């Protein structure tokens, strides 16, 4: 999903690691995160609520959000949904 967003900006050759920050390293803007949130919702429905995830963060945490933190959130939510 992230690769598709990056490809739109010609950044499909960008190195993405768990430590990559969405804004600083990948140069994504808030609208790009909205696009990514929509893709997560389309794929996993209500199990992944990106807005709720961000709502629990301070602004500096959102600005410094890493790929790894989002991945861990998605995995945690999917595992939680699988247990219920």
Keywords, separated by commas or semicolons:
single chain, 84 residues, mainly alpha
Explain what you see.
The protein has 84 residues and is mostly helical. The chain is 60% helix and 0% strand. It has helices spanning 2-8, 30-44, 50-55, 59-63, 67-83. The chain is globular and about 40 Å long. The termini are far apart. The mean pLDDT is 87.
Number of strands: 0
Question: In terms of structural class, how would the helical and strand content be classed?
Answer: mainly alpha
Strand content: under 5%
- Report helical residue fraction: 55-70%
Largest sheet: none
SS field, number of helical segments: 5
Helix and strand sequence: HHHHH
- The quaternary organization reads as single chain
Average pLDDT, rounded to a whole number, is 87
Radius of gyration: 13 Å
Span between termini: 26 Å
Stretches with pLDDT under 50, minimum 5 residues:
none
Molecular shape: globular
Task: Compile the SSE list and pairings.
Elements: H1 2-8, H2 30-44, H3 50-55, H4 59-63, H5 67-83
Summarize the structure.
With 84 residues, this protein is an all-alpha fold.
């Amino acid at each position: 999903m992230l690769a598709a967003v990056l490809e739109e900006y010609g950044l499909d050759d960008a190195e993405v690691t768990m430590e990559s920050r969405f804004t600083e390293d990948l140069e994504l803007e808030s609208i790009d995160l909205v696009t990514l949130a929509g893709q997560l919702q389309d794929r996993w429905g209500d199990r992944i609520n990106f807005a709720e995830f961000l709502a629990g963060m301070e602004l500096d945490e959102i600005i410094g959000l890493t790929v790894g933190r989002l991945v861990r959130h998605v995995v945690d939510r999917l595992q939680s949904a699988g247990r219920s």
